[in-house]
Amino acid sequence: MRFPLVLPALALTALAGCATVPKPLQGDYAATLPSQEGAAAQKVRWGGEIIRVDTEAQRTCFEVLARPLDSSSRPGRRDESGGRFLACRAGFYDPAVFEPGREITVTGRIDGSELRKVGEYDYRYPRVAADVIYLWREPAAYDRYADPWYPYGPFGWDPFWSRPFGPPVYIIHSHRGHRH
């Protein structure tokens, strides 16, 4: 009778392990987005995609396109935005590592705002005095030749599992507009 109870408990434990927030990002934070008006000195955990990195003599500032965070505090969908924000932290963060397009999550306190241009538009960026700048690893590229299931799939041969040479590609040559 105990066996049926063990499986649901193991499944819940496995699922809870998948949504773990990294230790430096754990804590209680305001549920606001950069696009919302926030109170000064409010403690926040925001994340998104790096747009630009400005290194100064004593600190580094990140311009970030905010994204909603998932259950592990990683920036989520690329087609959603929560506005933009600046995150500044003392020290040098190499722009070659923290390059545009990389995902970061920041914790800290709102310490004002800064007016900058986005194209020709004047945009007011909330500025975060960051305690943590967490750079997320880039997703690994799938290597089908390193896949132990390739080309068979987990249940034996399955032509839809791997498509060893990809879907068929048809090249249609059009001679419209060309003179011979």
Automatic annotation (TrEMBL):
Q: What is the top-level taxon of the source organism?
A: Bacteria
- The name on file for this protein is Slp family lipoprotein
Coiled coil among the record's keywords? no
Quick check: keyword Cell membrane in the entry?
no
Residues in the signal sequence: 1-19
- Provide this UniProt record's keywords sorted from A to Z: Lipoprotein, Signal
